Amino acid sequence: MSTPNATDAAGPPCPAEQVWTDFLSALDRLPADARLVLLLHDVAGTPLDVLMPLLGLSAADCRQRLDAAHACLRAYVRPPGEPPACP
Known about the structure:
Elements: H1 15-29, H2 32-43, H3 48-55, H4 59-75
Helix pairs in contact: 2-4
């Protein structure tokens, strides 16, 4: 069964699939602690003051990990064909 977002085996992925693939790749490149802070804060809506004791991190450490995760994800927003800048 084919979906509107399905790609042809011979063709390039559709833009939405490429964005999703790039996003997952960027998440995978994040250090585990930065990925956890990003997902809990940005996706689950957990405030940093709740994350601090949960993860055993200071406010500055939580913010640093969140900022690094955001920077990495922004590095993946790039013109097609340009390699990501995220380590």
